[in-house]
Design a protein that fits this description.
By secondary structure, this protein is mainly alpha-helical. It is 52% helix and 6% strand. Helix 21 links the parallel strand 3 and strand 4. Helix 16 packs antiparallel against helix 18, helix 18 packs across helix 19 and helix 20 packs parallel to helix 21. The chain starts with a helix and ends with a helix.
Length: 508
């Protein structure tokens, strides 16, 4: 009995950490300051790494956010002496696969953190060397991430050569930047560019040479990545509108989205127009919520079509397979988030609405917003959080699945949602005809977890609406009836799938 109880406690500890690693980024939330978030995360990382190192490493295969993924990698590399040989081999594969998915600027930031911690062992150098060798164009990185690449080369003694061939070229790909489509820099050229600027009169690599010429030639500015070109344009006194129009072909999707509204009140400037239908669901929801009510009404067809298209992509093979689904979605005032995470909880709820609509059987989806609004495109953070009343409305729909997306601060009246769900589970639905899951986009730093509605309701943290199907699956372990063995089996399956996907991508 003692061993079983210990397993349950261990599973709860691990899920505590997963919820924190999914939701918290160490930034200020509506009800907690940044320092509280950081202190809480620091404790959880240390606690889980020391007591459950294997599971700590396995979290890299889950949908934890980039901030915590980089933190896990840093902690594993800093404490390599605590791991066995087998653990190191598994950790190395997981770290390599996760680094390949992280935005390059975050990996270069990791380089600097490892340097500050004076970590430079052979294992760390090998992992970082392989990541650097897989970069599509180090010439692009030398221009866009100059300080990070210099740190890597100097502190870790990494070779400044590339093994991945050429890049993608147009600036319309990922939001983290694209390569130039040119050949790799010649031997020695990259080192001179980073450590001995001004030695060479010209560079063979076009992007390196464009950076050299941009100091005195306006035309060369438009050959550079957008974030680098912005500084040169300001130095040359180029008008913002003219600069954005000329640099538009080299902008990434996210850069286009950020500058789209600069072109006019309706965001309709052709030079910076981005195709919303290919945007990720949560980012698209954030963009829609940033628009005024009048603009959302005017662009209703475009925005709704883009959100539904993104939701169908996120649903994938699960589209239409969830049967009858009801959703309770939080658009109370606390969904406004904080100054650094503006409207993030509301964006998760809005993206979740369209994703649940895609997952439900055709015509078998109902949504109840806490404000009582019925038009999802016009939601705004306002008022109290009457979750209990909306849960009653949703249960009357007789769904097969009830999904609640909320920060869990049920306050109108307080605690009603938890009591409704307790009575529902213990008195009215003992056969569990309806599965209930609570997804919480806000980390509670004081409680070291996301806030729960009731002990009988599985709760999981969520940061991106796209992760909803996977998080509903992992929430089953949060009911307190599953031990560490079952959770470890689930993690093993996720690790196998994660590494298989990475290795099939052709990565080294």
């Amino acid at each position: 009995m003692t061993e079983t109880y210990a397993d349950l406690i261990a599973a709860e500890d691990v899920l505590l950490f997963v919820n924190a690693a999914v939701t918290s980024t160490g930034q200020r939330e509506f009800r907690s300051q940044a320092y509280q978030q950081r202190l809480s995360l620091d404790f959880l990382h240390e606690y889980v790494r020391v007591n459950y190192r294997t599971v700590y490493a396995a979290s890299l295969a889950l949908d934890i956010n980039d901030h915590n993924a980089a933190r896990v990698v840093e902690q594993l590399l800093r404490t390599a002496g605590e791991a066995s040989g087998e653990q190191k081999r598994t950790e190395g594969r997981l770290i390599a696969a996760r680094l390949a998915r992280l935005p390059p600027q975050r990996v270069y930031r990791l380089f600097r953190a490892l340097r500050a911690a004076k970590v430079g062992n052979r294992r760390t150098r090998a992992i970082l060397r392989d990541w650097l060798a897989a970069r599509p164009d180090l010439g692009h990185d030398a221009v866009k991430y100059r300080a990070g690449l210099k740190t890597a080369a100097r502190h870790f003694h990494l070779p400044l050569t590339t093994a991945a061939g050429t890049g993608t070229g147009t600036g319309t790909g990922t939001d983290t930047g694209t390569a130039t489509g040119s050949a790799p820099p010649a031997a020695g050229e990259l080192g001179d560019f980073l450590f001995k600027p001004g030695v060479r009169p010209r560079y063979e690599h076009p992007l390196l040479d464009a950076y050299r010429r941009a100091h005195y030639e306006q035309g060369a500015v438009y050959e550079l990545p957008f974030t680098v070109a912005e500084g040169f344009a300001a130095r040359h006194g180029v008008a913002r509108e003219a600069f954005v129009e000329r640099i538009a072909p080299r902008m990434t999707r996210l850069e286009r989205l950020r500058t789209q509204r600069e072109a006019g009140a309706d965001g309709a400037g052709a030079a910076v127009r981005t195709d919303l239908s290919v945007m990720p669901l949560t980012r698209l929801a954030l963009y829609a919520l940033s628009l005024s009510t009048e603009e959302r009404v005017r662009r209703r067809a475009e925005l709704t079509g883009a959100l539904r298209s993104a939701a169908r992509r996120a649903a994938g093979p699960y589209a239409g397979t969830w049967g009858r689904v009801a959703a309770v979605l939080d658009d109370s005032y606390s969904a406004s988030g904080s100054g650094v995470k503006r409207r993030r909880p509301l964006a998760v709820a809005l993206g979740g609405h369209f994703l649940l609509e895609a997952l439900a059987a055709p015509g078998a989806y109902g949504a109840w917003w806490t404000s009582g609004r019925t038009d999802p495109l016009l939601v705004r953070p306002y008022g109290p959080t009457p979750l209990g009343m909306r849960v009653i409305d949703a249960l009357e729909y007789a769904p097969e699945r009830l999904v609640v997306v909320s920060d869990g601060w049920d306050n109108a009246p307080p605690g009603l949602a938890g009591e409704v769900l307790r009575v529902w589970r213990t008195r009215l639905d003992r056969e569990r005809r309806t599965s209930v899951v609570h997804l919480n986009p806000v980390y509670d730093a004081d409680g070291f977890d996301v806030r729960r509605l009731a002990a009988s309701v599985p709760t999981a943290g969520i940061r991106d609406a796209e992760d909803l199907p996977a998080l509903v699956e992992i929430a089953q372990f949060a009911e307190g009836r599953t031990g560490l063995a079952e959770l470890q089996a689930y993690l093993d399956r996720r690790i196998e799938s994660f590494l298989r996907t990475y290795e099939r991508s052709g990565a080294t």
